Amino acid sequence: MLDVADTLGRWFEEGRDFAVATVVAVGGSAPRGPGAAMAVDSEGTVVGSVSGGCVEGAVYELCVQALRDGRTVRERFGYSDEDAFAVGLTCGGVIEVLVAPVGSAAPVFLAAVTAADRGESAALARIVRGPDDLLGGALLVHADGSYEGSLGGTPELVRTAAAQARAILDTGRTGSVEIAEDGSRCPGGVTLFVESSVPPPRMIVFGAVDFATALVRAGKFLGYHVTVCDARAVFATRARFPEADDLVIDWPHRYLRQTATDGRTVLCVLTHDAKFDVPLLETALRLPAAYVGAMGSRRTHEDRNRRLREVGLTEGELARLRSPIGLDLGARTPEETALSIAAEIVAARRGGTGAPLTGSGTPIHHDTDKRQEDGARPAAA
Q1: Which end of the chain is more exposed for a tag (fewer CB within 10 A), N or C?
Q2: Crossing angle, helix 5-13 and helix 106-117, to 10 degrees?
Q3: Is 185 helix (H, G, I), strand (E, B) or coil?
């Protein structure tokens, strides 16, 4: 449900009663991953999606029913070869959806969407399979291990669930874990679904050039916290980059050495100047960043690689560099080039090939997310 946290926060403020349907498991070529959500209020207003359209009508009715009877239910939707008009996923995949009214869990849900809107690290843990009296129980676990809410059951069950949720939160993932009803960590009769909300991943764009202006917009569209860094104050201005979260006037390599990065960080080097590129990439290619790309012609790339070898980078480190940056879209304009770079970032993040789907025979939805498994949701920026 953190998928639609911004809207749910407003609904809470307005005192609306609503039910939330959340995808808690997927199989095959499902259109949306775990954590995707749709909410319906008592007036019939809808926000979000669980399937991209295939089963929205049926899920809407389940939400309406949940508002009427106050019951939490879990439903499975798959493809039906026998009845072309049956409710199901035409893509051939399978999704399992938990539908729950806000009800008594409202304080926990409110705390969860508030944390997501603030960009705080937190995990919403819910029982999605188990005894009827436990189904839908909710717990919000914070990064420091503290928690609020109730799952029902024994204190041991709550403590184990909180510990498991924090472990998943530490990895930034959204997914499920099985525990025993008595609170032991052995797989048992309870399935816990954990939605992680973590601060948005960073995109750092080095070089305040025209291409950077378009790339900043693309980065924001993809949900990144975008920083533009350039040593030249005349170019790195708010007038040129109104949508950037941060503007930094500093030598790129010096800034990169002192700023926080992690395994989700994207580094885009657009400076196209050896005096900036080489010391910057010497640092960047030794960080555990998700993506490091550098702009330049193929001749520039070969010259840059030669200089990087001279300063001691290994072939393994150089192999991480995506240069010339972007996918081959035939891009010419800054906007087209930004799209090319953004497409390569998504392909690297999701394990895609970048090849056309037409006639390829490759999976449309990849099971592997190189950044975070099963649709971990970056918190709202």
Answers
A1: C
A2: 120
A3: coil
